[in-house]
Amino acid sequence: MLNVDEQSYREKVYEIVRQIPVGKIMTYGQIADILGEGYTARTVGYVMNAASTQKVPWQRVINSQGGCSTSKMTTPHNLQQSLLEEEGVIFKNEKCDVKTYRWTPEGYEEEDDQPNLFG
DNA sequence: AACTTGACGAGGG
DNA sequence: CCCCTCGCCAAGT
């Protein structure tokens, strides 16, 4: 049994990434927000950099713009995008609709505090 | 221990 | 839409 609290900094990130279902995505900032305690979009991105060699669906983590930050980096052109397209994610101009594909792990539902304007 | 680098994000021009 | 600035925090030098 591995308690999240016993996991290393990176393992906590992997733990969430492993839960992302096929055809869905999460953003770095979203993951950082869920983990809270000292995590930021930037550090999550740092962790994901080394995730390509881990047992995690790293391709399902993209930036808040709906694009793959790996497009113009080390990885072959748009490997990440290709992998997501194979999962059913539709890309338009190298970007997908984050609103449509974003996923949130159960138990970490986004806080939707909408003021009761019409009380 | 100080400085620099990032698969980032929100804002402003 | 593109470019720049600031904030964020782990790792590498």
Oligomer: single chain
List the strand order in the largest sheet. Answer: 1-2
The CATH architecture assignment turns out to be Orthogonal Bundle
CATH superfamily: Winged helix-like DNA-binding domain superfamily/Winged helix DNA-binding domain
| Major sheet attributes | 2 strands, parallel
Number of strands: 4
Shape: globular
- Write down the domain tally: 1
Structural class based on helices, strands and sheet pairing: mainly alpha
Computed CA radius of gyration, to the nearest angstrom: 15 Å
If you consult CATH, what is the topology?
Arc Repressor Mutant, subunit A
Strand content: 5-15%
Taken in chain order, the helices and strands follow as: HEHHEHEEH
Uncertain runs: 1-6, 111-119
Fraction in helix: 25-40%
CATH level 1 name? Mainly Alpha
What is the topological layout?
Blueprint: H1 9-17, E1 26-27, H2 28-35, H3 41-49, E2 61-62, H4 79-86, E3 91-92, E4 95-96, H5 98-101
Parallel strand pairs: 1-2
Antiparallel strand pairs: 3-4
Helix pairs in contact: 2-3
The protein binds a DNA duplex (13 and 13 nucleotides) through helix 2, helix 3 and strand 2.
